[in-house]
Amino acid sequence: MAGRFEGLTDLEWRLFEDIFPKEPEKRDRGMPHAPFRHVLNTLLYVLITGCRWCDVPKGEISYLFIA
């Protein structure tokens, strides 16, 4: 059954923060770096709500990879 996901709270993010590198590597070409918190929020949104990747709503939670 599909759920509802509002995004990670600051307390929840602190639990995951240590998993990701502190500073992303600088890239000369390609897409700019997306903040890891937004990447994790979008992945959790898809997993929790059960929506398809192409149906992720445009907005704060999904501004990264959606074309």
Give a structural overview.
By secondary structure, this protein is mostly helical. It is built from two helices and no strands. The protein is flat and about 35 Å long.
Topology:
Blueprint: H1 10-17, H2 36-49
What structural class results from the helix and strand content? mainly alpha
Mean pLDDT: 76
What is the helical fraction, as a range of percent?
25-40%
What's the alpha carbon Rg, rounded to whole Å?
13 Å
Largest sheet: none
- Beta-strand proportion: under 5%
What is the N-to-C succession of helices and strands?
A: HH
Q: Calculate the terminal CA-CA distance, rounded to whole Å.
A: 27 Å
Question: Low-confidence runs (pLDDT<50, min 5 residues)?
Answer: 62-67
Q: What is the count of DSSP helices, taking H or I runs of 4+ residues?
A: 2
> Which geometry do the CA atoms define?
flat
Strand element count: 0
